[in-house]
Specification:
Layout lengths: L1 H16 L8 H13 L18 E5 L4 E4 L1 H12 L6 H9 L4 E2 L2 H4 L4 E3 L3 H9 L2 H8 E4 L2 E4 L7 H12 L3 E6 L4 E6 H7 L2
Parallel strand pairs: 1-3
Antiparallel strand pairs: 1-2, 2-4, 5-6, 6-8, 7-8
Helix pairs in contact: 2-4, 3-4, 6-8
Length: about 200
């Protein structure tokens, strides 16, 4: 009986140590990393702009809060603060987006990045519903475009919480400031077209 208990204990430890959650797929990280490198300022000073550089991505800070930031800023952070710790930007980006790196909040406070805690109501819906039901609850569709429903999202914290859960399920958002909509897109559509 003691041997069986001991074996179950060891098996439980082994399984829990190997149970790292990956939020963002490697294909998505590869695509974003290539976009950053491709759009770095050239020697003549010109910059190629990619709208993927303004897509919100999420990292964890040292106060267990989430930060909505951009890939180009993470590249800047990599170059000036993390280059000696990670072999390349792709590895750094993968670990950042999968919350394996905990960032000091000081890197983000002087910029206009949103720092937030997951809204409890949004979290409860995410944890109790299938993802497709969560997705359909918060999104509306018009002319084959999907966007966040403003009548279901009451404040900024809820807005970023929903975008975060979409992000960790392989979706990204773009803002249309003119009509005030947040459009939702699937990373799979882009990464599969760029292989």
């Amino acid at each position: 009986m003691k041997k069986m208990f001991f074996l179950m204990f060891i098996l439980n430890i082994y399984c829990s140590c190997d149970n790292k959650k990956t939020f963002v797929k490697q294909e998505t990280v590869d695509f974003l990393s290539k976009e950053v490198i491709k759009n770095l300022p050239r020697k003549d000073g010109l910059i190629n702009l990619s709208h993927y550089m303004s897509v919100p991505v999420f990292v964890l800070n040292n106060h267990s809060l989430l930060i909505s930031t951009r890939v180009d800023f993470l590249h800047h952070l990599y170059i000036f603060s993390y280059k000696n710790q990670y072999e390349n930007f792709n590895i750094f980006l993968f670990k950042s987006l999968n919350q394996e790196i905990i960032f000091d909040e000081k890197y983000f406070t002087k910029y206009d990045f949103s720092i937030f805690k997951i809204d409890n109501g949004v979290k409860k819906k995410y944890e109790t519903k299938k993802f497709i039901d969560f997705y359909n609850y918060y999104l509306k569709k018009e002319d084959k475009k999907e966007y966040l429903s403003r009548d279901k999202i009451l404040d900024t914290n809820q807005h970023f919480s929903v975008i975060y859960y979409l992000f960790i399920n392989n979706y990204y958002t773009t803002e249309d400031d003119y009509i005030g909509r947040t459009y939702v897109h699937n990373w799979n559509e882009i990464t599969s077209n760029n292989k």
